[in-house]
Design a protein that fits this description.
By secondary structure, this protein is of the alpha/beta class. The chain folds into 3 domains: 79 residues, no CATH class; 250 residues, Immunoglobulin-like (Sandwich); 182 residues, 3-Layer(aba) Sandwich (Rossmann fold). 28% of the residues lie in helices and 21% in strands. The protein has 16 helices and 19 strands.
C-alpha cells in the first residue's frame, strides 16, 4: 500500500503490500501536533497490519483493499504456458436460442474473510431464470427431462469453501437435490421404481404443499457392468496450471484406473494449442503404462477444445466396440481461447456423435474463469454426465463409488410428465429443471433427446402446489408418467402412478428423505435469491436440518450441508464494519478494519466517495 501525503512525497508503508497507489490530493488543515499524533497512530496501526504473523505476501493479482481487482498475472506454465488463459470478452459462450451468458459479477466476501486472489468475474454461467407458478386450469401438464448431474452443488461448495458466495446463476436446484441420496427402494422389476410423497412446503405459505417425485434406477453390480472403452480427453492448456488443476486431474484419473477391469480399454488425448494422441487404446490391465502417461502430462499452450473433441470422437469411432460403453471423459476448466470458441458448433458435435453411441462425460476443474455453462451443456448434448471436482474426496465419490453409475447406462431419453387435476390443484411450480423443460406434446416424441440414467442413479423433483379451497381427502391430484428407452432391450417403455390427496402428511410425520430434500432445495433457492422463498432465512434451513433424525444428521454429506449453510449465512450477513475509535475503545487489533483505504481517507479529512 502506498500513501501520498503530497504529490512529491511517496511513503511505502510495508514492503509486501499490493503495489497499488491510492492518492489523496488534499490540504491537511490540522495543527502540527495533530499531524504528528495522527501519523504516529497510523504508523502504529499499519505496523500491526504489516508485521503480524498472519500477514502474508500479497499475490500480484490479489484484490486491493478497496475491493478492486489488481491486474492479473497468470502463473507461468511449463514449458510454454499461454500469456493469459482466461476467455476474452468476445469468447463468452452464447446459448441458443436465449441470450448469451455473461460473466457474472464478482461475488463479495465478508469483511472478515480472506480476499480471493482470483477475479471470479471471468466465470461463465447461464441464467435460466426461475420457474413461476402455473395455473393448472390453463396448463395442467408439466414435462421435463431427468437430470442426474451434481456439478452445480459441488461448484457452489467450492465457492463457499473459499469464503465467497456463488453467483445466483450458478445455482441449479435439481443438481443440489440430486447430489444427496434418499435411500429409495430398488425396483422390484424393470428399470425404475417411482415414489411420491406429499407434505407442507415448509418454505411457502400455510396453503402451499410440496410434492416429491423420486425415481430410483435399478442397480447393476460393478462385476456385471459392460466393458468400458474410454477416451480420456485431458485439457493441458496453460489455464490448467492454475490452482493445481492438472494435478487434481492426474490424482482423480489414477483413482479411476484403480477401479477399471482388465478388459476395459483406455486411450489418452490431450488438448492444448492442438490435440494429440498420447496413448492409443490400451487394456486397463496395463495400469502402470497408462498411469505413466498421465503422470508425465504438463500444462502448455492455449485451449483448443474443438480440436480435442474432434480427435476424441474420431478415435472413439475407430475403436468402437458394439455392446460396450463407449465414452469420452473430458477433464477441463471449460476455458476456450482458440479454435471454435462459441459453444454452438461444440454442442452440435456432441449431439451428433451421441447419436452414434458415443457418450460424453465432463468433469470440471478449477474456479477462476471456469465455464460452467459449456461443461454442463456438453454433457447434456453428449448424453453424458456433468460433475465438478473440487477435491480428491469428490473425485473418490464420482470416479470410485459412482463409477458403475457412469459406465452402465440403464435407460436413455428419460422423461417425466406430471398431469395435475385442475379441479383440485390451483397452481403448481417445479423447483429447478429450468434448462430441462420439454414441450408437453413431445413427451411421447421419441426423437426428442432427454436424460440418461445409470445404474443405481436416483432422480428427485419437487413441486410446490396450491390446492383449491375444497380439496377432497380422497381425490387424485396428479398422475406421474415416466417414458424411456430401456438400454437392455432398446425398447420404449412407459409407466404411470397416481398421487392421492390422502398421501398428505404433516411435516413431523414426513419421511427423512422428504425433509432432507426440502432442506437442500430451500438452500438452493436462498442462494439463487428466489422470490418464492422470500421471508425465509438460512436459520430456517439450519433448523430444518437439526430436526432430522440423529442417523441422518450424522451422515457426512448432511454435516457438510449444515456447514455450508452456516458459511452462506455468515457471508450473506457479514459483521458490520467497525471504525477505528471503536476498535481502540474495545482494545481490538486495528488489522480487523474491513477497509483500510476508507479509514485513511477518513483520518485525512476525506471519504471514499471523494476518491479521484
Amino acid at each position: 500500500m502506498v500513501l501520498y501525503l503530497k504529490p512529491s512525497a511517496k511513503t511505502t508503508l510495508c514492503d509486501d503490500a499490493p503495489k497499488e497507489e491510492n492518492t489523496v490530493n488534499k490540504s491537511l488543515h490540522t495543527s502540527s501536533a495533530r499531524k504528528a499524533l495522527l501519523m504516529l497512530s497510523l504508523s502504529f496501526g499499519l505496523l500491526l497490519a504489516c508485521s503480524s504473523p498472519d500477514a502474508t505476501p500479497t499475490s500480484p493479482n490479489q484484490p486491493s483493499p478497496s475491493g478492486t481487482a489488481m491486474p492479473s498475472a497468470e502463473p507461468t506454465a511449463e514449458p510454454t504456458a499461454e500469456p493469459s488463459a482466461g476467455p476474452e470478452p468476445t469468447a463468452a459462450p452464447t446459448a441458443a436460442p436465449s441470450a448469451e451468458p455473461s460473466p457474472t459479477p464478482a461475488p463479495t466476501s465478508s469483511p472478515g474473510s480472506t480476499p480471493s486472489i482470483y477475479d471470479y468475474r471471468e466465470n461463465f454461467f447461464q441464467n435460466y431464470k426461475i420457474n413461476p407458478f402455473v395455473e393448472a386450469a390453463t396448463d395442467p401438464l408439466s414435462t421435463f427431462s431427468v437430470d442426474v448431474d451434481t456439478g452445480s452443488y459441488t461448484l457452489a461448495r467450492s465457492y463457499l469453501n473459499q469464503g465467497l458466495l456463488p453467483p445466483p446463476a450458478a445455482i441449479r436446484p435439481e443438481e443440489f437435490i440430486n447430489a444427496f441420496r434418499y435411500d429409495y427402494a430398488q425396483p422390484l422389476s424393470g428399470a425404475f421404481a417411482l415414489q411420491t410423497a406429499l407434505g407442507p412446503s415448509y418454505f411457502g405459505t400455510e396453503q402451499t404443499r410440496l410434492l416429491k417425485v423420486g425415481l430410483q434406477g435399478r442397480e447393476i453390480l460393478s462385476n456385471q457392468r459392460k466393458q468400458a472403452v474410454l477416451t480420456l480427453l485431458i485439457d493441458v492448456s496453460g489455464s490448467m496450471n492454475r490452482e493445481n488443476r492438472l494435478g487434481l486431474v492426474k490424482q482423480s484419473l489414477n483413482l479411476l484406473l484403480n477401479e477399471l477391469r482388465p478388459d476395459d480399454r483406455v486411450a489418452i488425448i490431450t488438448l492444448g494449442t492442438d490435440a494429440r494422441m498420447q496413448l492409443d487404446y490400451t487394456p486397463a490391465g496395463q495400469r502402470a503404462l497408462i498411469q505413466q502417461v498421465i503422470d508425465n502430462l504438463r500444462p502448455e499452450g492455449s485451449t483448443n477444445t474443438e480440436a480435442g473433441l474432434k480427435l476424441a470422437y474420431q478415435a472413439a469411432k475407430g475403436a468402437f466396440v458394439q455392446g460396450a460403453e463407449n465414452r469420452i471423459i473430458l477433464c477441463s476448466d471449460g476455458v476456450v481461447n482458440i479454435g471454435e470458441r462459441g459453444p454452438e458448433s461444440l454442442l452440435a458435435l456432441a449431439r451428433s456423435e451421441s447419436q452414434q453411441g458415443i457418450s460424453l462425460t465432463t468433469l470440471g476443474f478449477g474456479l477462476q474463469g471456469f465455464n460452467d455453462y459449456l461443461m454442463e451443456q456438453l454433457a447434456n448434448q453428449g448424453d453424458g454426465y456433468y460433475a465438478y471436482i473440487d477435491t480428491l474426496a469428490e473425485a473418490q465419490r464420482v470416479l470410485v463409488r459412482q463409477l458403475t453409475s457412469m459406465l452402465q447406462v440403464i435407460a436413455r431419453d428419460v422423461k417425466i410428465q406430471v398431469a395435475f387435476d385442475p379441479e383440485l390443484v390451483d397452481q403448481y411450480r417445479l423447483l429447478g429443471y429450468e434448462n430441462r423443460d420439454i414441450a408437453d406434446e413431445d413427451f411421447r416424441n421419441d426423437n426428442i433427446d432427454a436424460g440418461e440414467v445409470g445404474s443405481n442413479h436416483s432422480v428427485t423433483a419437487l413441486y410446490e402446489l396450491r390446492f383449491k379451497p375444497d380439496l377432497r381427502q380422497n381425490g387424485e391430484i396428479a398422475t406421474v408418467s415416466v417414458r424411456y428407452q430401456d438400454a437392455a432391450d432398446q425398447q420404449i417403455k412407459e409407466f404411470s402412478e397416481s398421487v392421492q390427496a390422502d398421501q398428505l402428511r404433516n411435516f413431523t410425520a414426513s419421511s427423512e428423505a422428504f425433509k432432507l430434500a426440502t432442506a437442500v432445495a430451500g438452500f438452493a433457492e436462498l442462494l439463487r435469491d428466489s422470490l418464492f422463498i422470500a421471508g425465509r432465512s438460512f436459520d430456517d434451513i439450519l433448523e430444518l436440518i437439526d430436526s432430522l433424525s440423529p442417523n441422518t444428521r450424522q451422515r457426512a454429506d448432511v454435516q457438510e450441508l449444515r456447514r455450508l449453510v452456516e458459511t452462506a449465512k455468515r457471508l450473506k450477513n457479514p459483521r458490520p464494519a467497525v471504525d477505528f475509535a471503536t476498535l481502540l475503545s474495545q482494545s481490538e487489533n486495528p488489522r480487523e478494519l474491513s477497509n483500510w483505504q476508507n479509514y485513511l481517507l477518513q483520518q485525512l479529512g476525506g471519504n471514499a466517495s471523494q476518491q479521484p
